Amino acid sequence: MKLLEAICTTTLRILSKSDDKGNANPTYVRDTLPGSLKKEARKTVKAARKEFGETQDETKVDNYWKQTRKRRRKSLNKERAHNN
To answer: Domain ranges in the chain?
Structure first.
């Protein structure tokens, strides 16, 4: 029952946070769910993408955020080194 409820709320969140074409933002969906349901949400989003022909791969999104965090960390470290 809890899983069904989570899927319903996730679906509503996906619909409310999608762009004009109806493509969902997977990072938003993942970040709004409690930890135990994130894996299920990931599977659900992947399955929905496969079924509806969504082209954006979740790994691309993950890699984008990893790179962004890496760049941010690098610049902060440079700034800290410069201030010392």
So the answer is: 2-83
State the pLDDT confidence band at 31, using cuts at 50, 70 and 90.
low
Cβ neighbours of residue 41 closer than 8 Å, sequence gap 6 or more: 6, 10, 29, 30, 33
**DSSP assignment string, 17-64:** T--TT----HHHHHHHS-HHHHHHHHHHHHHHHHHHT----HHHHHHH
Q: How far is 67 from 76, CA to CA, in rounded Å?
A: 14
User: Of 49, 47, 48, 11, whose CA–CA distance to 29 is shortest?
Assistant: 11
Average pLDDT rounded to a whole number, residues 29-45: 65
pLDDT, tens digit, 9 for 90 and up, residues 43-60: 776 776 666 665 556 666
CB 37 within 8 A of CB 48: no
